[in-house]
User: Which sequence fits this backbone?
């Protein structure tokens, strides 16, 4: 019996090659899209899931009020870990993780800038990063030990044994390789090529014992018999216990299971996070697969007349309805299996591009048993979903009516087929509208006034001998005509490295907790950065030596301090008295989607410079400027590579997330439209074939091609119009909620909906009219010859 059903299924597929092709292509694209999205979702939900003690690992967070708003963040004082280990018996291990930046690694003639972390010795006992060589108990115990990843070991030492080898770092200290880690998986929050012990930070003078600085991340492993509820009350007051000046400061432990997906805090409490995108992607995957299945349902039921006699005869000779249902579902599962083979090919071809778009490293785990179990289940689910309605519909025909030719119902106003077409295009139109509004929001932020001149400006971190030779480097850059201005800051002009609420000024409210971005710079801020002065002047140590105690405020900072005339005002920080020499116009240093943060730029009294900023002379070609700059840096810092970053390129990267959302929305919209139009094309083809004699009669009676095209197209266009009416309010609400996340946002304009309606109608009209025009141009003599 099974063999017979299989033969019938293949015969039907081959007999109706056109419709089979449309069904297979539609299902394959839908399945491939769903698989790629599900791989992305699996990657997200499995973040750091490989750690054996994951259910006992927590991260320390702060919660405090600034600028009238409750904030939560995950950088903590460096002394917190030791205090927790000492005071809380529930803690098995507490370790710190600090970013060491890119350090120069020297092995023989090899010199490479490598990124990594500085950690406590028990880091590898808290987290289960698999060690290929070495012991997690001892690998980081020595002050000059280093643990490297397998890839870095291969880069440094080739095929030679890495254990016990010496690596010289920053031309200062020698470190011995005491462990080799397996390369980090693509779904972990950590991103390092090496681990250095905490002693490295202590030797570089970057360790501190105060509770006022929040600069490192602290991770905690609770004992197996301890609970979060037992430690939470003590954790809440640990900051105020050691720092009595902060009466309302709280700390809490945040579980590892929620780091990736839920760690978006607003008002001091969880407020979504990446879980929103995971859910959204899941819905999109489900809808794309559903739309592909709808095509199958529509085409199968539309062709019911051709299968009706088969059903009638089978029932007459005794076939029960259950067996007919099994036959039709079997056909859909077979078609689903064929589509799955094509879908795998589509996935393999599209994954590299999708990975580049999403900044992931997704892959199809062909070697996993679970993958094949899930794949079989996915194929069966798709086949059942696509074939269930046609199976029950076709098997419900009554033999008497079928064989008399009276089984067809009148053309109802509302039919399941029409509802399904409306559902398809509703989702497509929603995605079209969302794509256009996301693009508008990106353009709105991109066109926002930045507040400084980004062009012809680059920065270079102060590596190696740059700090020692800065004066001659600056002088040579200026005298050679390469640069028009050069200065130093503690952070790039597009990033925030430090902030504080500790400034004091005359008339400050004791309860004021305004958070200020804290920048440090030497002279030439206005000239180098291209900002605009509102009051006063630039920092100038040549003509005004006291400008080492000078300060520049941005407009938001002057407003926050309630200065009507800021020039000459005294501001104290860390027991140093500064005086305001100028006020600059607000500029964007963080996200272009958020309000400007108050900012204080301190003079050179307490220099902590990390960056050299260079504004190129625009009279020279950029390439020529770069070559000369590189030569100067190599001359005075020969041991380090010349690694620069253009400010305008870095600023552009601030739009990457939103661009990614817009691109994905557009991609999903295109896929949805493609699959929907495949089904629409198939339905139009079938209807044209089914009404071929009617069209022939109409042509003989004088109907024009345009009239016949309108006749065959109007029903489909009506369904698309209904889809728009359903989709518009849904899309408006979704985009309204999304835009509320942005203080600077576009208005949702009426023309977006008008354009989406026009696009959907044009696309559907082009799809349907091809078959309609073809039918209208056909010779009526051929269609009427059999009458």
Assistant:
């Amino acid at each position: 019996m099974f063999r017979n059903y299989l033969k019938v299924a293949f015969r039907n597929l081959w007999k109706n090659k056109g419709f089979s092709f449309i069904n297979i292509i539609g299902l394959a694209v839908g399945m491939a899209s769903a698989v790629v999205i599900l791989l992305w979702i699996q990657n997200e939900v499995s973040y750091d899931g490989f750690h054996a003690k994951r259910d006992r690992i927590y991260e320390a967070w702060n919660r405090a009020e600034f600028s009238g708003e409750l904030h939560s963040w995950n950088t903590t004082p460096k002394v917190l870990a030791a205090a927790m280990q000492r005071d809380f018996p529930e803690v098995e291990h507490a370790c710190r993780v600090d970013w060491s930046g890119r350090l120069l690694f020297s092995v023989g003639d090899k010199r490479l800038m490598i990124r990594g972390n500085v950690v406590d010795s028990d880091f590898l006992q808290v987290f289960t990063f698999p060690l290929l060589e070495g012991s997690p108990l001892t690998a980081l115990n020595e002050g000059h030990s280093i643990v490297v990843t397998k890839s870095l070991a291969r880069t440094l030492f080739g095929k030679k044994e890495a254990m016990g080898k010496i690596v010289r770092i920053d031309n200062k200290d020698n470190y011995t390789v005491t462990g080799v880690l397996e390369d980090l998986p693509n779904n972990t929050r950590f991103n390092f090529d090496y681990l250095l012990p905490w002693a490295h930070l202590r030797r570089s003078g970057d360790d501190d014992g105060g509770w006022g600085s929040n600069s490192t991340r602290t991770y905690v492993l609770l004992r197996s018999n301890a609970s979060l509820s037992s430690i939470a009350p003590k954790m809440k007051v640990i900051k105020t216990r050691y720092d009595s000046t902060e009466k309302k400061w709280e700390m809490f432990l945040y579980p590892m299971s929620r780091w990736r997906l839920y760690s978006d805090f607003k008002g001091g409490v969880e407020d979504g996070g990446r879980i929103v995108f995971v859910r959204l992607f899941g819905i999109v995957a489900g809808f794309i697969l559903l739309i592909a299945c709808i095509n199958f349902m529509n085409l199968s039921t539309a062709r019911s007349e051709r299968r009706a006699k088969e059903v009638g005869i089978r029932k007459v000779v005794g076939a029960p309805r259950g067996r007919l249902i099994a036959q039709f579902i079997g056909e859909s599962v077979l078609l689903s299996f064929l589509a799955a083979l094509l879908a795998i090919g589509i996935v393999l071809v599209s994954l590299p591009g999708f990975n580049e778009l999403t900044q992931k490293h997704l892959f199809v785990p062909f070697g996993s048993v679970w993958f094949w179990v899930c794949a079989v289940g996915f194929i069966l689910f798709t086949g059942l979903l696509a074939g269930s309605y046609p199976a029950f519909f076709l098997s419900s025909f009554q033999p008497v009516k079928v064989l008399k030719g009276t089984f067809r119902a009148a053309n109802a106003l509302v039919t399941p087929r029409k509802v399904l077409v409306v559902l398809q295009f509703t989702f497509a139109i929603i995605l079209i509208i969302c794509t256009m509004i996301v693009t508008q929001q990106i353009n709105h932020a991109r066109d926002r006034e930045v507040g400084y001149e980004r062009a012809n400006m680059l920065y270079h971190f102060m590596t190696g001998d740059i700090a020692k030779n800065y004066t001659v480097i600056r002088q040579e850059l200026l005298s050679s005509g390469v640069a028009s201005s050069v200065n130093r800051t503690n952070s790039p002009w597009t990033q925030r490295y430090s902030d504080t609420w500790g400034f004091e000024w005359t008339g400050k409210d004791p309860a004021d907790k305004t958070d200020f971005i804290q920048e440090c710079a030497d002279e030439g801020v206005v000239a180098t950065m291209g900002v605009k002065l509102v009051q006063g002047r630039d920092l100038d140590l040549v003509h005004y030596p006291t400008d080492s105690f000078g300060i520049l405020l941005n407009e938001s900072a002057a407003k926050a301090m309630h200065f009507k005339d800021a020039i000459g005002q005294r501001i104290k920080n860390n027991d140093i008295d500064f005086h305001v020499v100028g006020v600059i116009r607000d500029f964007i240093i963080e996200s272009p989607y958020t309000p400007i943060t108050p900012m204080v730029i301190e003079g050179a009294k307490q220099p902590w410079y990390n960056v050299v900023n260079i504004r190129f002379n625009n009279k020279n070609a950029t390439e020529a400027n770069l070559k000369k700059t590189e030569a100067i840096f190599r001359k005075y810092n020969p041991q380090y590579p010349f690694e620069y970053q253009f400010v305008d390129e870095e600023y552009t990267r601030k739009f990457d997330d939103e661009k990614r959302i817009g691109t994905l929305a557009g991609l999903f919209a295109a896929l949805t439209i493609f699959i929907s139009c495949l089904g629409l094309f198939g339905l139009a083809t079938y209807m044209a074939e089914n009404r071929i004699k009617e069209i022939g009669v109409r042509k003989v009676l004088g109907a024009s091609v345009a009239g016949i095209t309108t006749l065959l197209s109007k029903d489909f266009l009506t369904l698309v119009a209904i889809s728009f009416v359903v989709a518009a309010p849904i899309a408006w609400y979704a985009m309204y909620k999304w835009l509320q996340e942005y203080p600077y946002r576009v208005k949702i304009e009426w023309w977006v909906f008008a354009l989406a309606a026009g696009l959907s109608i044009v696309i559907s009209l082009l799809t349907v009219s091809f078959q309609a025009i073809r039918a209208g141009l056909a010779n009526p003599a051929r269609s009427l010859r059999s009458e």
Remarks:
- Residues 98 and 784 are 83 Å apart (CA to CA).
